[in-house]
Design goal:
single chain, about 240 residues, alpha+beta, Alpha-Beta Plaits, eight-stranded antiparallel beta barrel, 8 strands
Length: about 240
Amino acid sequence: MRMLILLLLLCPFAGISQTKNVVTADRVFPKIDKLLEFEKAIAAHAQKYHRGDTYWRVFSIQSGQDAGGFQISEGPSSWEALDTREDMGAEHKLDWNKNVAIYLTDKTSVNYSVYQDSLSTVALGDFSDKISVAHVYPKVGKNFKVRNLIKKLKAGWVAEGSTVAVYAANSSGPAQFTIVTRYKQGLKEKAQNFRKPFKETFETANGADSYDDYLDQVGEYVDNVWSEMLFLRKDLGSK
């Protein structure tokens, strides 16, 4: 009986430790003259080896500094699962090196991020095929200040009905928030007349003149921001 009570007490902590809120984003860049070969190879690799926690969603990067590359999004997973993932065995590693990597340039990047439920307006797993990504880099020591700014943005997103997922980088270079707008209705959501001007919506949610104050604080607390657009390539990811 005593052992049963102990196990019941431990169950909530086990659930917390296995939270699946970690995503990885690997960026690869195929050689210009090997694009078709790369696409065929990565699709075969994803469909053969990537299931469950290692499920792949592959995006083509349409704009920004990484345009022409591909983002391989894996997860959500837990840190515990990633702790034992490693290279998924010799066969998996050989297939990647022999059949996929041969078509890539040397340019690459890997990012680990944790989904921020309190800053997001859409569930982690509620994906869309077309997204805009804003990379926000706080100044040193201003991470929590920027987090508070994003909370104000969230109030505006909720008011206008935008579906936005926010992630915080973890052990992946400079401190970064990744703000992902998921276009559930397609790119027409970007049209100027699709929604009210964001300043108007922001101030409805946060108070009069709050948008100008927000911009002043962005200049004070944010080091850099850049954005891009990505399209899902269902034919290249896991099935």
